[in-house]
Amino acid sequence: TDNLLAIKGLKTHFFIREGAVRAVDGVTLSVPRGKTVCVVGESGCGKSVTARSVLGLVDEPGRIVAGEIWWRREGGEPVDLASLDPKSEQMRRVRGGEISMVFQEPMASLSPMYTVGAQLVEAIQLHLPLDKDQARERAIGLLRRVGIPRPEQRFDAYSFQLSGGMCQRVMIAIALACDPALLIADEPTTALDVTTQARVVDLLRELQADTGMSVLFITHDLGVVAEIADEVVVMYLGTVVERGGVDEIFHDPKHPYTKALLGSIPRMGAGTRQRLTTIRGNVPHPSDRPAGCPFHPRCDSAIVGVCDAAEPPDVVLGPGRTARCVLHEHDRSSLKEVRI
Ligand code: SF4
Ligand code: MG
Question: Which atom, in ligand 1's list, is nearest to the CA of 306?
Answer without folding.
Answer: 2
